[in-house]
Specification:
Elements lengths: L1 H7 L13 E6 L2 E7 L8 H11 L10 E4 L13 H8 L3 E4 L11 H8 L3 E4 L3 H7 L1 H9 L3 E8 L18 H11 L4 E5 H7 L16 E5 L10 H4 L6 E6 L4 H8 L4 E5 L4 H16 L3 E4 L3 H9 L5 E6 L28 E9 L2 E8 L15
Parallel strand pairs: 3-4, 4-5, 6-11, 6-12, 7-8, 7-11, 8-9, 9-10
Antiparallel strand pairs: 1-2, 1-3, 12-14, 13-14
């Protein structure tokens, strides 16, 4: 099953909104075939593993073999035929499943289909690891919200910009390259209006190879003040761009942005935290977004953390001291907590050097008394 999990992660950034799935087929001689779900709309992991066995000249070993699958095989006709049928047609006699698939059209039916056909099915092997692997998929299904990754670069004294607002560049080139890789596997990249105005960012994945997916660029802007000459607006017809604003904005301003290819959506929420949550839910309902990357600024991060909407942190710490006191912003604004013991607990997954910087990857603990979990496959 560990090998199947290693296979599954190879589909990260390519298969969403589907889950990542891996499959390894074995018999008493060893591995017969292995595979993974490589891209949305493409063959599922079970079919890929069976095809691998056939391509490798081991098709004769499939009848009677055991398939280890990280997620319950599907039993319905979607973009591809049912994986349960493929396993049965190949003569697989035992299937070991890490976890059931909560997707309504599967949700135990795949396992039941196999059992009714006389296949031995065992469920639960390395279930925690399988759940961590697909935490973004599971969160979206269970809550209607995407997995939110907060990314920032800061100095040793915890500043994301100098007192003048200048922030280019705090992190080094190796860290920025890592961020571009992350951008290339998420569904949306979100910034606040202040960051959009100060940095005039492109918010694209600039890599030596084509990114796995092109993220929708989102500006949270209650005043709909995004400059028509900004790079985001000027490239909106090439890269999807959304401005999330309020109902008080005049129609003329909205239409000016729309005439440049920018999507503008208004929310009537009066509470900032609710306003941000509406955006996240919109990204799921309109675009089936699974992973959303937020790149600042401080006010937007504050609203997200105050509302407990962040799942994962990517923090890059540069060997700089900026000073500036309260005039130089720290990563997270908002209300914050009144007492230290009220603060949410985070688990540091990794901490290592990237070039001259230190990278910290942390995951939220749902319950500070328990050991934790959602695994991000990044970093």
């Amino acid at each position: 099953m560990r090998r199947a999990l290693e296979q599954a992660i190879r589909g990260q950034g390519r298969v969403e909104p589907n889950p990542m799935v891996g499959c390894v087929v074995i018999d008493d001689q060893g591995v017969v075939g292995q595979g993974y779900h490589a891209k949305f709309g493409g063959p599922h992991a079970e079919v890929d593993a069976l095809d691998d066995a056939r391509r490798s000249g081991r098709a004769d070993r499939l009848p009677g073999a055991t398939a280890y699958v990280t997620l319950e095989p599907c039993c319905h006709h979607g973009k591809t035929p049912p994986c349960t049928d493929a396993l049965l047609d190949a003569g697989i006699r035992r299937v070991v499943v890490a976890m059931l698939d909560p997707f309504p059209e599967v949700s135990g039916r795949g396992v039941e289909h196999l059992k009714q056909a006389g296949v031995q099915v065992d469920v639960g092997l390395l279930e925690d690891q399988a759940r961590r692997l697909n935490a973004p998929y599971l969160k979206r299904l269970q809550t209607g919200l995407p997995w939110v990754i907060a990314k920032w670069a800061m100095s040793l004294d915890g500043k994301i910009a100098a007192r003048t607002g200048d922030s280019r560049w705090i992190s080094g080139p190796a860290s920025r390259e890592r961020v571009h890789e992350l951008r290339g596997r998420v569904d949306a990249i979100v910034v606040g209006s202040g960051t959009a105005a100060a940095d005039d960012p492109m918010l694209t994945a600039r890599l030596a190879h084509p990114p796995h997916r092109v993220a929708r660029r989102v500006v949270v802007d209650s005043q709909c003040s995004l400059n028509l000459n900004s790079r985001l607006v000027q490239t909106a017809r090439q890269v999807p761009t959304l401005v999330w604003t309020g109902t008080a904005v005049d129609d003329r301003t909205v239409e000016q942005l729309r005439s440049h290819g920018v999507e503008v959506q208004r929310s009537d929420a009066t509470d900032r935290q609710q306003w941000i949550e509406h955006l996240l839910r919109y990204l799921v309902t309109a675009y089936t977004a699974t992973n959303v990357l937020v790149e600042g600024g401080s006010g937007l991060f504050g609203a997200l953390f105050d509302a407990d909407l962040v799942d994962e942190i990517h923090a890059y710490i540069a060997p700089l001291v900026l000073g500036g006191g309260a005039q130089a912003p720290s990563p997270v604004g908002g209300k914050g907590v009144a007492r230290v013991q009220e603060a949410a607990r985070w688990q540091i997954e990794t901490m290592h050097r990237i070039g001259e910087d230190c990278f910290i990857h942390a995951l939220r603990l749902a319950d500070p008394r328990s050991a934790p979990s959602p695994l991000s496959a990044s970093g």
